[in-house]
Amino acid sequence: MNLFDGPAVVLDGGLATELERRGNDLSDALWSARLLADAPDEITAAHRAFFRAGARVATTATYQASFDGFAARGIEHAAAERLMRRAVELADAARADLPSDGKERWIAASAGPYGAALADGSEYRGRYGLSVAELAEWHSPRLDVLCDAGADVLALETVPDADEAEALVQAIAGRSVPAWLTYTIDGERTRAGQPLAEAFAVVAESPDIVAVGVNCCAPTDVEAAITIARTVTDKPVLAYPNSGEGWVGRHWTGRSTFDADLAKGWLAAGANAVGGCCRVTPDDISRLADAVRPD
């Protein structure tokens, strides 16, 4: 069965948020990827919590995983590969822990943008000063590992820049594992400032990108983004915003504006899969699953 066949798919929420709620310190530059080495059982438990809340997809703890980042922690290339593979294994273990309910569950191997590996907030700005070719070369080695690790789909997520999306289209071309690509946005533009219609057009014709959408953005920006995507492509559309709080100085500020009932509007606008990102908890996903459940 294809992930996007049938009724709307409920995605998970903020993996790092759940890990922090469980008492884990993620202040390291590797963020949740640090726990692949230090506390793998915590990652499995967080995945399990989202599955139990109603999510059908577990997104792996590899968003901020990179060979550069692991090397800075003294983890050599082969060991870094093993840790990335472990991320898929941990999500699979969580999936296997749950009784079958007649519905499939999937694993999405997360690949965050180049800016995430810098751990300085660049994923919310883009414009790194690298060419499309340089970005494609940087992404390819870890995509090699994630494609071979056994995930059902690659999640190329929180992409702030249409140029990086172009690089990812090049890097993913011809691979055996399908991918989705989601932009992080500000209003109707990418974080780098490109019109969202132009950004979706970059990936619309790629046979390897099977779905597009937005993530880690304000919930109030989602519906318009879905509408724009629907004017550009007939690919399935995903929407999984953050809580709506602001990320300032490595801290979240403000209040959550994530409302599960908003997801009804996202589906009406044409979304095929909905969920949450940073600061969205299993309780939020449970409410969202209830909100979008067919009558």
UniProtKB/TrEMBL annotation:
Domain Hcy-binding: 1-292
Pfam families: S-methyl_trans
Record's cofactor remark: Binds 1 zinc ion per subunit.
GO biological process: methionine biosynthetic process; methylation; S-methylmethionine cycle
Co-factor requirement: Zn(2+)
PROSITE patterns named in the record: HCY (PS50970)
Residues binding Zn(2+): 216, 277-278
EC numbers on record: 2.1.1.10
UniProt keywords, alphabetically: Metal-binding, Methyltransferase, Transferase, Zinc
Enzyme class: transferase
GO molecular function: S-adenosylmethionine-homocysteine S-methyltransferase activity; zinc ion binding
Protein name, as recorded: Homocysteine S-methyltransferase
Source organism per UniProt: Solicola gregarius
Classification lineage: Bacteria, Bacillati, Actinomycetota, Actinomycetes, Propionibacteriales
